[in-house]
Protein backbone atom coordinates (compact mmCIF):
# COMPACT_ATOMS: atom_id res chain seq x y z
CA UNK A 1 0.00 0.00 0.00
CA UNK A 2 1.38 3.36 -1.01
CA UNK A 3 1.01 6.18 1.49
CA UNK A 4 -0.03 9.28 -0.41
CA UNK A 5 -0.35 12.60 1.41
CA UNK A 6 -3.62 13.47 -0.35
CA UNK A 7 -5.16 10.09 0.54
CA UNK A 8 -3.99 10.47 4.12
CA UNK A 9 -5.42 13.99 4.34
CA UNK A 10 -8.76 12.79 2.96
CA UNK A 11 -8.81 9.88 5.43
CA UNK A 12 -8.09 12.21 8.38
CA UNK A 13 -10.89 14.55 7.25
CA UNK A 14 -13.40 11.74 6.74
CA UNK A 15 -12.58 10.12 10.09
CA UNK A 16 -13.03 13.37 12.02
CA UNK A 17 -16.22 14.27 10.13
CA UNK A 18 -17.73 10.93 11.15
CA UNK A 19 -16.51 11.36 14.74
CA UNK A 20 -17.97 14.90 14.80
CA UNK A 21 -21.43 13.68 13.76
CA UNK A 22 -21.38 10.84 16.31
CA UNK A 23 -20.11 13.13 19.08
CA UNK A 24 -22.70 15.81 18.27
CA UNK A 25 -25.48 13.23 18.38
CA UNK A 26 -24.18 12.04 21.75
CA UNK A 27 -24.16 15.63 23.09
CA UNK A 28 -27.67 16.20 21.77
CA UNK A 29 -29.08 13.03 23.36
CA UNK A 30 -27.01 12.97 26.59
CA UNK A 31 -25.79 16.51 27.37
CA UNK A 32 -25.10 15.93 31.09
CA UNK A 33 -23.06 12.78 30.47
CA UNK A 34 -21.25 14.58 27.65
CA UNK A 35 -20.26 17.37 30.04
CA UNK A 36 -19.04 14.80 32.59
CA UNK A 37 -16.95 12.95 30.01
CA UNK A 38 -15.51 16.25 28.73
CA UNK A 39 -14.53 17.12 32.30
CA UNK A 40 -12.83 13.71 32.67
CA UNK A 41 -10.86 14.30 29.46
CA UNK A 42 -9.75 17.71 30.76
CA UNK A 43 -8.29 16.30 33.98
CA UNK A 44 -11.36 17.07 36.07
CA UNK A 45 -11.66 20.72 35.05
CA UNK A 46 -14.84 22.28 36.47
CA UNK A 47 -16.80 23.20 33.35
CA UNK A 48 -19.97 24.38 35.10
CA UNK A 49 -19.04 28.10 34.90
CA UNK A 50 -19.03 27.73 31.10
CA UNK A 51 -22.70 26.80 31.09
CA UNK A 52 -24.38 24.07 29.10
CA UNK A 53 -23.70 22.82 25.59
CA UNK A 54 -25.34 25.02 22.96
CA UNK A 55 -25.69 22.63 20.05
CA UNK A 56 -27.72 24.26 17.32
CA UNK A 57 -27.48 23.77 13.57
CA UNK A 58 -25.03 26.64 13.04
CA UNK A 59 -22.67 25.45 15.79
CA UNK A 60 -22.90 21.90 14.42
CA UNK A 61 -22.07 22.98 10.87
CA UNK A 62 -19.35 25.54 11.67
CA UNK A 63 -17.68 23.28 14.22
CA UNK A 64 -17.78 20.30 11.88
CA UNK A 65 -16.51 22.22 8.86
CA UNK A 66 -13.63 23.90 10.69
CA UNK A 67 -12.63 20.69 12.48
CA UNK A 68 -12.70 18.71 9.22
CA UNK A 69 -10.54 21.34 7.50
CA UNK A 70 -8.09 21.35 10.41
CA UNK A 71 -7.77 17.56 10.29
CA UNK A 72 -7.39 17.55 6.50
CA UNK A 73 -4.50 20.02 6.82
CA UNK A 74 -3.02 17.95 9.66
CA UNK A 75 -3.25 14.77 7.55
CA UNK A 76 -1.65 16.50 4.57
CA UNK A 77 1.21 17.87 6.68
CA UNK A 78 1.68 14.45 8.28
CA UNK A 79 1.76 12.81 4.84
CA UNK A 80 4.21 15.39 3.53
CA UNK A 81 6.39 14.91 6.60
CA UNK A 82 6.23 11.13 6.17
CA UNK A 83 7.38 11.47 2.55
CA UNK A 84 10.27 13.73 3.54
CA UNK A 85 11.34 11.51 6.41
CA UNK A 86 11.20 8.37 4.27
CA UNK A 87 13.21 9.97 1.48
CA UNK A 88 10.47 9.84 -1.18
Count of separate DSSP helical elements: 3
Low-confidence region ranges: none
Number of domains: 1
Largest sheet geometry: none
CA(first)-CA(last) distance: 14 Å
Q: Mean pLDDT across all residues, rounded?
A: 92
Please bin the fraction of helical residues.
over 70%
SSE blueprint:
Blueprint: H1 5-29, H2 31-41, H3 57-86
Structural commentary:
This protein starts with a helix and ends with a helix. Helix 1 packs across helix 2 (31-41) and helix 1 (5-29) packs antiparallel against helix 3. The model has no long low-confidence stretch (mean pLDDT 92). The chain has one domain. The protein is mostly helical and 88 residues long. The protein has 3 helices and no strands.
Outline of this structure?
This protein is mainly α and 88 residues long.
Structural features:
88 residues; mainly alpha; 3 helices
Amino acid sequence: MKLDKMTLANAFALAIAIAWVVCSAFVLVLPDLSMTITSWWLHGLNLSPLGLFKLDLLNFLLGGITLTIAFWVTGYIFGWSWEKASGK
